[in-house]
Amino acid sequence: MGFRLFGQYRNVQDDNPSAVGSFRASEALINQLEANPVTSFNGTNFSSAQFLGENELPTLSSTNPREADRDYNISLKFDTRLSKNIDFTVSGTVFDSENLFTPSLAWGLYNWTNNPVAYSGGYRGNVRIRHKLGLE
Questions:
Q1: Quick one: which of 108, 117, 110, 104 has its CA closest to 28?
Q2: Is residue 24 situated within a structural domain?
Q3: Which residue range(s) make up the domain with 29?
Q4: Among residues 112, 110, 107, which one has the least CA distance to residue 49?
Q5: Which of 29, 44, 80, 114 is deepest in the core (most CB within 10 A)?
Q6: Is residue 98 included in any domain, yes or no?
Q7: Closest C-alpha to 13, from 96, 61, 69, 60
Q8: What domain count does the chain have?
Q9: Partners of 77 in beta bridges
Q10: Which is it for the CA torsion 109, 110, 113, 119, positive or negative?
Q11: What's the per-residue H, E or C state across the chain?
């Protein structure tokens, strides 16, 4: 009779690092644009982002905020010998993942505070009965 238990946990704050950095607008600027997305001049509407000053342009960041990845895996295997010629094994795995990601380069510039989250998870199991044939 025997068993094996395996587990893995991973938590990465930036799962897509850039060697040269990436441009990101500040969170304060994004909040300002979300509060006032349209600017009107003489009855014509314009995007407020068109009127950003030099101080308000996105800056180069060495890390990608909200690019985290967290996942875990747990596996268990239990096996026993029922008789000299019969082995019985039961095994199973459970996994779960939560990944924040930036869908495109343009998204990451002014909308990184709303990065989507991809969830995945599941389980699987196996049962094996092995009978050895022989003259023993």
A1: 110
A2: yes
A3: 2-131
A4: 110
A5: 29
A6: yes
A7: 69
A8: 1
A9: 4, 91
A10: negative
A11: CEEEEEEEEEEECECCCCCCCEEECCHHHHHHHHHCCEEEECCEEEEHHHHCCHHHCCEEECCCCCECEEEEEEEEEEEEECCCCEEEEEEEEEEEEEEECCCCHHHHHHCHHHCCEEEEEEEEEEEEEEECCCCC
Q: Are 101 and 118 in contact (CB under 8 A)?
A: yes
CA distance 81 to 79: 7
Rounded to two decimals, what is the model's pTM? 0.67
Q: What is the residue type of 16?
A: N
Residue located via tokens 């993942």: 97
Residue 30 to residue 18: CA distance in whole angstroms: 22
pLDDT per position as a tens digit, 85-94: 999 999 999 9
CA neighbor of 133 nearest in space, from 98, 76, 73, 86:
86
Q: How does pLDDT run across 62-111, given as a tens digit for each residue?
A: 888 888 999 999 999 999 999 989 999 999 999 999 999 888 877 888 88
Q: Quick check: is 73 in a domain?
A: yes
Q: Is 136 inside a domain boundary?
A: no
